[in-house]
Amino acid sequence: MRDHGGARDHGRDRPEYAPRDDSRNTRPGQEARADRPIEPRIPESITGRELGKDIQAELRGLSKDTAERVSRHMVAAYLLEESDNETAQAHARFAARLGGRVGAVREAHGIIAYRAGDFRTASRELRTSLRITGRTDVLPMIADSERGLGRPERALDIASSEDASDLGVNASIELIIVVAGAYADTGDIETALRTLEIPALRHKVEGRWQVRLWVAYADLLERAGRPDEAKRWLTLAADADSEGVTDAAERLGRPAPQPAEEPTWADDEQISVLDAYDPDADADADADADADADADADDFDAEGENGFEGENDSEEEDELPAGASDEVDAELSDADVEEPADVDEPADAGEPADVEEPAVEGVSSDAAEPATADELPEASLPAEEKIEETRASEESA
Length: 397
Description:
The chain is 54% helix and 0% strand. The protein has 18 helices and no strands.
């Protein structure tokens, strides 16, 4: 007898009446489009130009319309992060879907996911942004995401990698905090405390106290069974944290510090006007102005630029001792020359003497005599006299 077992078995694998495959009637890509997330609505006030210039430069690799959509979703994600975190993540997710090959977009998605506690998405997106841009300042968040996924050993591996050696000061401190937490996750609290006992724990870094380092140190002291020391460090953090970087004040039962808001031109009621009028300052300014005016007037008259020779002569006569002006006039009258229009003062002439003191007070007895007619500059003749001299010379010739 023929064995039909194989045929029966094969028949069991195939149903007698196969259901109709409706997927053959769908258009190509229709199923994939059905899985796409719905684009969240963007507030009309967001233009996308709120992003920094460096991020806008990275978005230029996309088309103009796509870059605008991506930038608006990124801005919406950051703005809604505190008030509506779920919608913020939806904006960041959609921006990463449109601009997935731009490192800044993947980084933004990873950061928002990290803050929301979605460590798996954060680790994936931040690693992708690191490969695209090469910016290593995301390493502390990647390492902390590994801690959040229950893999502290990977966090320690990231801290000892070659990329970690290129971190700046602030990013290095953040990575040290993550490393200490990773040691604490493994149960080694003492090593975690020694990890945080670095110079930045007791000294300012770039002019600022590292309050996040203090809070992390206080948490480890609490876990080590040293609550009094932990409270002291937490109090220090609450006193120094005026920007609300940590929750130290809230943990101590204090009101959280509120950073001062910058006034905007859009709301004039928030702009405060500071009246810095100082009447004493105006009085001092007027006194200085009068003193400068008197000094300028003295210099002006001393240089003879006012055009009134009589006034200059009278001032000089007041400053000269008695009889000196008569001697000068006598010597000048002996010289048969016209008075020059402008006589330049000697280059070594000193500052004009004070009005209250004689001009010659303190001058030695061997002072130089007044200039004679031979020492004065040659006076220019009027035009008529020059013409007569020229005509006389021609007639004599």
